[in-house]
Write a sequence for this structure.
């Protein structure tokens, strides 16, 4: 029932702002239901909500961006306290691993492809991956391979001469800022990103000096 109702909201015609509001309301309902219990049912609801949101990140059927404006919904689902059931921590970690892996796969699938919809998909999945890494509790275990591939893709996109590089720069800067909390996972991310960041800044310096790049691109080095 939930999935069919959500599909109707997602695919319905109308103004983008109205569709975004409906999607936000739908996920707010998920969060409300989940917050109303501390049993294993909370993790069930969270899982269904995350699964549905992953469909937004996977979509490339049109050029309309429904993911960016609805990222707060993803964060709300990730931020819900764990249920009191014994396996809640394990279920949450597997859910995070699956979602993060899906984001990386979505990006990999766009390799060699062009177009507004493809660019939108890469940007949104980069941003979603960083949102996940910065939103989950420090006690959440994330597979090393997934973390390394996340940082590899951010580094790769950062050094490309493409508009996605600005999004990658924003992702890198977000991880750097968040790592100041002392989170070991985020510090590991910064360490993995450092070679690409150094190369990026080295390339930007002469362009900043002659004024040939925007402040947005230059700001990563601040």
């Amino acid at each position: 029932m939930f999935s069919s109702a959500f599909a109707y909201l997602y695919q319905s015609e109308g103004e983008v702002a109205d569709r975004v509001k409906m999607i936000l309301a739908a996920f707010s309902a998920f969060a409300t239901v989940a917050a109303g219990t501390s049993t294993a049912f909370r993790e069930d609801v969270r899982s269904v909500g995350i699964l549905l949101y992953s469909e937004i990140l996977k979509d490339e059927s049109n050029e309309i961006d429904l993911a960016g404006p609805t990222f707060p919904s993803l964060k709300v689902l990730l931020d819900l306290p764990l249920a009191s059931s014994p396996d809640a921590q394990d279920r949450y970690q597997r859910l995070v691993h699956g979602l993060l892996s899906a984001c990386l796969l979505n990006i990999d699938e766009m390799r060699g492809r062009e177009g507004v919809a493809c660019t939108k998909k890469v940007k949104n999945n980069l941003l979603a991956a960083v949102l996940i890494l910065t939103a989950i509790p420090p006690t959440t275990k994330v597979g090393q391979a997934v973390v390394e591939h996340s940082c590899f893709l951010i580094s790769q996109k950062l050094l490309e001469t493409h508009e996605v590089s600005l999004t990658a720069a924003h992702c890198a800067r977000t991880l750097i800022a968040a790592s100041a909390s002392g989170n070991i996972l985020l510090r590991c991310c910064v360490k993995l990103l450092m070679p690409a960041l150094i190369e990026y800044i080295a390339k930007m310096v002469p362009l900043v000096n002659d004024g040939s790049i925007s402040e947005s691109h230059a700001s990563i080095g601040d």
Observations:
- Residues 1-5 have pLDDT under 50 and may be disordered.
